[in-house]
Prior knowledge:
9-stranded mixed beta sheet; globular; single chain; alpha/beta; 11 strands; 271 residues
Amino acid sequence: MSAPETLIRKVWKDIEAVRKQAPLIVNITNYVVTNNTANSLLALGASPAMNHVAEDLPGLVDLAGALVVNIGTLADDYVVGMHVAMAQANDMNMPIVLDPVAAGVNRLRTDTCLEFLEKYHPDIVRGNASEIMALAGEDGRPKGVDTSMGVDEAEDAAKALNERFGCVVLVSGETDLVVGEGREMRLAGGSAMMPRVTGLGCTCTALAGAFAAVQHDYFQAAVDTAAVMNMAGEQAAEVSPGPGSLQMHLHDALYLLDEATVRARLKVVRS
């Protein structure tokens, strides 16, 4: 379960890089999670911009280190903004992180994500098992934005997405799975209380944008993301009697994360 020394050093180096560079991360995300994801990025050390207005996005993307697209809100104006921002990010060779929220619930969500994957080639896709399976054409039996499937059941789907679109795939669950070209890693940690706080998966996606901005090995950026969410979630749960305080303590844990915590809490199941 303990992580190898080389991985500990890589994760800590990338945390330090986010704090030193404070990259601007443009988020087109759903209105349920905007405040929490923005505060999580700030706590880690990045700078968030939360916007979906097509006319306003070019100036923001021009200054950014990464773009995060979360399809939780699929109103027409959000989708227009997503197209504008991703097209510009491609022109700038800027990393894109895609969160396929509730893919598989209906054709609109699944097809929209597949269009984005075909057209803009996001570098990291972060989702739960049901969402990843739906994008690969499998029945992930979603429960709204939640999943009824385990991470292991999504392994083949994650590999299929990586092979088809070239994206690194981060499957979040009780154990997190990261799949890249010829590489695979599972990380453990977090808390069973975390699914009781809305949008922590979306928070994970936003943090992936921060790491992708400073670490252009996107497999490593996704590993950084899973590791940090697991460590911070685990630490926060130890001092939280319920999900309300967990959300607060998660921000504190992200802010206070240090090398000693990485050494003590980073857990690799299989790599």
